[in-house]
Sequence to fold (405 residues):
Amino acid sequence: MKKVFFAVIAAILVCSCSSPSDLVTLNRSEIQKVRKGIRAGKAEYMPAYEALIQKADGLLSAEPLAVTMQEIAPPSGDKHDYMSRGTYWWPDPTKPDGLPYIRRDGVYNPENQKIPADRYLKTTCANVNTLVQAFYFSGDEKYAQKAAELLRVFFLNPETKMNPNLKYGQAIPGICEGRSIGIIDTHILGQTVDALILLEDSKAWTDEDAKALKAWFKEYNTWMLESEIGKEEGIQKNNHGTAYDFQVCAYAIYYGEPEIAVKQLENVSRDIRMDQQFPADASQPLELARTNSWGYSTMNTNIWVELIHTAKNLGIDVWQWKNKEGVGVKEAIEWYFPYIRKEKPWVKEDISKTIGSGNLHNAFRCYCKQFCPEKYDELIATLDSYTNDNYNFETAVGNLLYPIK
Fold:
């Protein structure tokens, strides 16, 4: 009965949206206009488009990757199971065997390169995103064909496919074989769902391919929602919880159960997550407490932006959400303004020394589009003058995917 209720609510919300999209974070009508502009040779689109095509051309010879290529088998003995190691965990120098490992927050252990499944997953998803975007805007099937090849090897072929679970994600030697927080490893999968939907426009991706991959995502989402590991990740209060919400929503939309996304957004993201993350001053103390304070706070902000886009495609306006302190994503984004404008110094710990505006362009693009599109150029100019983090705004694909004007 409850499932039927949420299905009805989802249908009402989608129908009530002023410009509904069948995508997750993208809006089809907007990117269609961009595609039309590209094919008409409009100057404002060409730098980003040409950079995209150049990058996609370089991927046409990319080797397909798979979790089964890992040399070290997971505890199950099945190389189809995804496995990764805790990012910031190191051997204990006071122990002969180094066990159990100890945590050095923010310091990446290069030993993790020996277990490359997370790198293979991220590379595959990033390459598929680029190739499908190139296919969509150019219409050239060669990019779709390559994306389809990469997807079949990683997710569908019986000899190489990844099992739809993360039982062995972010393991810690001497402590555990896997942890719930390993689920953040698949955040990039949620970011790839739009590409999977756009790929369905290509003859290179068959109905059978799409059906099989949707079944894979449904099984993975069910595992996330019902397994003990998945449930534990779902109650995390920081960026892990936000990324979990986004993944649940993206996957459910992809395989055709938007009522699950509506339930997650309304019952968790709005009613729980905002209270946990945003105090009265709109900072993010759970992220600012990390040794890479800038990186984690901006990452969580960007995931909220992904949720804004996703919810909008379901007819839900996250910009209107406020927690018990009267704070929402709008205030959380505005909190950065004094730091970006150099009116305040960044005094929190940041051992990676990556403070810069490049990783905030998506958030500010979304903010300006909602509240002050006429000030967008001025704000972006301020951001670019602040940072030297090599973010090339003119060639950023975000200009094509999320046009501001």
Summary: Residues 1-19 have pLDDT under 50 and may be disordered. The chain has two domains: 1-28+237-405, 45-234. The domain at 45-234 is CATH 1.50.10.100 (Glycosyltransferase). Residues 64 and 150 are 5 Å apart (CA to CA).
